[in-house]
Specification:
The structure is a single chain. Helix content is about 50%, strand content about 20%. The chain is of the alpha+beta class. The protein has two domains: about 40-110; about 110-190, Gyrase A, domain 2 (2-Layer Sandwich).
Length: about 200
């Protein structure tokens, strides 16, 4: 007859070694059962995963709201940048205009100062009358009448001394005989010092 011990291990017999082909598990009532421990471990793991998922979900929602706020901020900054660029273009256009006006003012030696100086110089010189004047930009051509060659020479000296002209050259002088008076017609070219 074969006996099976379900409660524990068999006591070895004296003198004879017991031979076991396989060992039988023994169930004890001490401590938690492995099934309950596995279920508890599974519940704790599921709770950890749930809380980790909830934390990730909250982080995702916060990042989404931050991204939406950043996109709104970028959209408003784009409008501000466009307005700034438009204002900058207007400023640059006005600056160019003012620079051109300033350059023109600095380079301006217009007809008024030229004519004023020329009339003062001719008025200082006795016996000289101008018939025509032609402004070529860098040079001025003068045609006129004088009572004598000395008057023409005095006009040339006065033009050089005025500070507005340099290299005053006489092109030609012709003596004209009229019945009433004797006059000299002259033609000269003067370079302007201020162009």
């Amino acid at each position: 007859m074969i006996r099976i011990n379900l409660l524990g291990t068999a006591k070895p017999k004296k003198g004879r070694k017991s031979r076991r082909l396989f060992a039988m598990p023994t169930l004890t009532t001490e401590g938690p059962s492995p099934l309950i421990a596995g279920l508890a471990l599974l519940v704790v793991a599921a709770a950890g995963i749930y809380f980790y998922h909830m934390r990730l979900e909250n982080t995702h929602e916060k990042l989404q709201s931050d991204l939406t706020a950043a996109n709104r901020s970028i959209a408003s900054m784009v409008k501000v940048k466009q307005a700034y660029l438009e204002r900058q273009k207007e400023y640059d256009a006005f600056k160019r205009r003012f620079d051109i006006i300033d350059q023109l003012r600095q380079g301006q030696v217009g007809p008024v100062p030229l004519l004023t100086n020329l009339s003062e110089t001719v008025n200082k010189t006795e016996g000289v009358w101008l018939l025509s004047m032609h402004d070529d930009g860098a040079t001025v051509s003068l045609d006129g009448l004088a009572l004598g060659p000395n008057n023409v020479a005095n006009l040339m000296t006065n033009l050089r001394n005025s500070g507005y002209y340099k290299n005053v050259e006489l092109r030609d002088t012709v003596q004209e005989d009229n019945q009433k008076s004797q006059t000299f017609s002259f033609s000269m070219v003067c370079e302007k010092t201020k162009v």
